[in-house]
Design brief:
By secondary structure, the chain is an alpha+beta fold. The chain has one domain: 3-Layer(aba) Sandwich (Glutaredoxin). The protein is 38% helix and 27% strand. A four-stranded mixed β-sheet has the order 2-1-3-4. This is Small redox-active disulfide protein 2. Keywords: Disulfide bond, Redox-active center. InterPro entries: Thioredoxin-like_fold, Thioredoxin-like_sf, THIRX-like_proc. It comes from Formosa algae.
Length: 78
């Protein structure tokens, strides 16, 4: 079953870095997941997240306010 991964952020350097890490992990490990970027501040607010970037996997907020390591993302996606 495909995972739905959302990256909440307005496009700041940290948000872009998180997107890169997540996409690398998915492609390097052949994980079945779709990545969606949520840049609309009103949509981000609905997740009740005050610090971006935030990583949402299957509607669960897993990381916020920092860029995760590849290992951390891989563990979350398994």
């Amino acid at each position: 079953m495909s995972k739905v991964v959302k990256i909440l952020g307005t496009g700041c350097p940290k948000c872009q870095a998180m997107t890169g890490v997540v996409k690398d992990v998915i492609s390097e490990n052949n994980i079945d997941a779709t990545v969606e970027k949520v840049e609309d501040i009103m949509k981000i607010m609905t997740y009740n997240v005050m610090t971006t970037p935030a990583l949402v996997i299957d509607d669960v907020i897993t990381i916020k306010g920092r860029v995760p390591s590849k290992t951390e993302v891989l563990d979350l996606l398994k």
